[in-house]
Amino acid sequence: xxxxGNKKEAMKAKKNQNTSVNKVKKVTKRVVIVEDDQELxxxxxxxxxxxxxxxxxxxxxxxALQCLxxxxxxxxxxxxxxxQMDGFALATHLEELYPDLPVVxxxxxxxxxxxxxxxxxxxxxxxxxxxIALDVLIQTVLEII
Length: 145
Known about the structure:
Blueprint: H1 2-23, E1 30-34, H2 38-50, E2 54-58, H3 61-70, E3 75-79, H4 87-97, E4 103-107, H5 112-116, E5 124-129, H6 134-144
Parallel strand pairs: 1-2, 1-3, 3-4, 4-5
């Protein structure tokens, strides 16, 4: 009889534990992907959404700034050469407006790397040369946020 009571208590404790675990809110990381190539931007958004991230895509720096005004982010992934506001101007604005927001810069031109290094762009955590291997992109994001 006592053994049956212990089983019931154990089951009740497990049920309470499961209920408590379900009450813990999952923290979703928010990423803004700034890329003027619509197909590439949509592909990257889908990849990170499948990974459980809250992702917003922006075609240029102006749209990215609007996204950030509406809702904060944990990371910005940005291309360099874009219309309206390019990655250089965006990085400068982000440093002024969001000094703790990490930025990853992507470009098809290696020479852009030097322009984002050093103290002039402290938010830029990494420069990735396109084309970017998917595993490198994902690992970079995981390391930063």
